[in-house]
Model the fold of this input.
Amino acid sequence: MSVQEWTFVMVGVSFALYILIAFKSRAKTTSDFYVAGKSVNPIVNGMATAADWMSAASFLSMAGLIAFLGKDGSVYLMGWTGGYVLLALLLAPYLRKFGQFTVPDFIGERYYSNTARVVAVVCLIFISFTYIAGQMRGVGIVFSRFLEVDIKLGVVIGMGIVFVYAVWGGMKGITYTQVAQYTVLIFAYLVPAVYISIIMTNNPIPQLGFGSTLSNSPEFLLDKLDKVTSDLGFTPYTENAKSKIDIFCITAALMAGTAGLPHVIVRFFTVPSFNAARKSAGYALIFIALLYTTAPAVSAFARMNLIDSIQDKEYSESPQWFRNWEDIGLIAWKDKNSDGLIRYSAGNALEDVKPIYSEERGNSGERTVKNLPDLSNENEVYIDTDIIVLANPEIANLPFWVVALVAAGGVAAALSTAAGLLIAISSAISHDLLKKTIMPEISEKQELFYSRLATAFAIGVAGLFGIYPPAFVAQVVAFAFGLAASTLFPVLLLGIFSKRLNKEGAIAGMLVGLVFTSSYIIYFKFMAPELNTPDNWFLSISPEGIGFVGMILNVVVALIVSSLTAPPPKEVGEMVERIRRP
Done:
């Protein structure tokens, strides 16, 4: 069978499985819809948490970022993994013992304030929709490339599948669907990694092959990759280009921001007890480690194979995988020196990657170029970093079923996280805004109806992000992590470990963190991108890392304001003691 036929089979079978699971475990109460009845087994919840955690960003983007940034890309690996450790140790068990449905619910009750609750809801919705845009983009990429379906139709199909099992099953259906999705995505990630590790290093364990010698040479893989990237004008693969303070702040912002992600935190509300939350955190870490320890190997293999496959090749004889991705606009080539050869090296190949339309080739082929100074380099190739994991099996000439498996894994990763985000959004709207703030008199049946309605609305908005992605989606990813780090994480952490923190301190801290972080990122990313250089940054800290500074400001302001205002009511202190009690 062809790649397309294999992909139809694997994606179709996985979709049928997801819908069947949702039907068998559909939600009947608000507890089922929000937190799966708080009855999920720790091992099952560990797998579901891993699937929820490992979004299209982990499955598709992380390896691509490491492949193209080299050692600098490791900040994403350290930040996202470290963030989970922070969440598992410092937040998840205590929030589970609190015993409610949502993160804004904890903030509203802990700080005895609907204002704090609403601020938390706003932050949650912004963060969640930012992530959903990325998930829908991942679904669109897979469908447009491997099923030869228009990207808009691919997003609509993905929306339809999520609609069925999210609206129907709620958190209960999503939990068991995510177990299936984790199984699909982890096999999809590991199988090609093992294949390529054997081919390149004769070692079947990618994590060890990554540091081994090449199968056809006594030279170590990373040594050769350093030489090749240096020869092409890039920073050597195993060296940093970023400053130490920027690396530290980006990693810290990613850790704190990731630990504050509401859709992952809520997964720990689904287990029966405080002890089960700790166990499920440990299981999830094991399941997550399978992918995260493999990602550096996948990145190195992919970068090496990519360069070998295209460098100095005749464009007319370019590999089929190159043409396939070029046809959907995620690879582009411009023959700058008119020699007909593909030249891949450091520098921006193109200013505008929109394709020139021609009747012979459609929307593919060379891209438009503006004569800007930063384009006066030898590089002739534009490569979207998100394609690395999906293209890797094709570049390595693996069997078609492996290519299709990776496509199914990419869809599983995107849909699993999208579903978790949608439940987080719908819960915040129906439970925290309606039930707890605007319409406290509604019944459980009405709340469940509004929950499903909010989920359907959120799916529609997510679909629009996927079909008409805003130009700044890639840029606001930094905004999302910075916002989570500088707003939600500090008030959650201090809410558990500081009985003295009051509502005035929490609200002031969140607002200061929000205003500082958003102003810094908006200025450098949108208002003055030409100034977005280390020389102009505060203490040489990039917009991606400024959330850490915003977090520190949040903590300092919250503690100072709390010390100058009345302490929390006695019952709040008792609640804090209760959730911290073993």
